[in-house]
Specification:
Keywords: Hydrolase. The chain is α/β, with parallel strands linked by helices. The protein has helices at about 20-30, 40-45, 50-60, 65-85, 95-105, 115-125, 150-155, 170-180, 210-215; strands spanning about 5-10, 110, 135, 165-170, 185, 200. The longest helix is centred in the middle third of the chain and has 19 residues, at about 65-85. It binds magnesium ion. Magnesium ion binds next to loops.
């Protein structure tokens, strides 16, 4: 089996953007009249838009009236858009890892739960030339942890997901990639990710080689 594609998560994997989301959701919690506990914050890492709002409302013990949830969603989107317009820091080794995959000529996609407008702001930092396709959370029926984003990315690359390696930092993202049939290189950022078949762990992206990605593809999925 040859490595047919490398599928990159964005928040927490390429960019240290979870910190920006952290600021956004903390401020949202205050806006909603509550405060964010560490437990709630952890539950939110890697969660998608509607899912993240559900977790916030549940965590704060608020009634999930559709109009209130929608208003909170608009508030959060506006705030993180402001925050993402500033510089977003890279994760260690991420830029070099992207370059290594590009130099090897392996098809690559960005696979993010973040919605397209904010993802585009991040792509101004990351660069669009690394990717043959980009998939955002608002472009698939269900975001991570559902397999949809990874299935869509493999489809756009025209490769089987089973021949792809996804690179993820969160339990939610790793679950999504695994459910799509991808092997997963897990590089935890904010929180630990449980081990599972088909997952290989690495401390950071520093020094990542294409040979290692080929090796990830060879790990058993069950
Ligand atoms: Mg992530």
């Amino acid at each position: 089996m040859t490595l047919a594609g490398v599928l990159w998560d964005m928040d927490g994997t390429l960019l240290d953007s979870e910190k920006i989301w952290d600021v956004g959701v903390r401020e949202l919690a205050v806006e909603l009249g509550g405060t964010m506990s560490d437990e709630l914050r952890h539950a939110l890492i890697g969660a998608s838009g509607p899912n993240a709002l559900r977790i916030v409302f549940e965590g704060l013990g608020l009634e999930q009236r559709p109009e209130a949830v929608a208003a909170a969603g608009r508030w959060l989107q506006r705030r993180v858009t402001e925050l993402f317009a500033g510089p977003v820091p890279w994760r260690p080794g991420a830029r070099e890892a992207l370059a290594a995959v590009r130099a090897a000529g392996i098809p690559a996609a960005l696979v993010t739960n973040t919605q397209r407008p904010v993802a585009e702001l991040c792509l101004d930092t990351v660069g669009r030339h690394w990717f043959d396709a980009t998939v955002c959370g608002d472009e698939v029926p269900e975001g991570k942890p559902a397999p949809d984003p990874y299935l869509r990315a493999a489809e756009l690359l025209g490769v089987p997901p089973e021949h792809c390696v996804a690179i993820e930092d969160s339990p939610t993202g790793a679950q999504s990639a695994g459910a799509a049939g991808c092997r997963v290189l897990v590089v935890p950022c904010e929180i630990a990710v449980p081990s599972a078949p088909g997952r290989v762990f690495r401390e950071s992206l520093v020094g990542l080689t294409v040979a290692e990605l080929h090796a990830v593809l060879a790990v058993p999925v069950s």
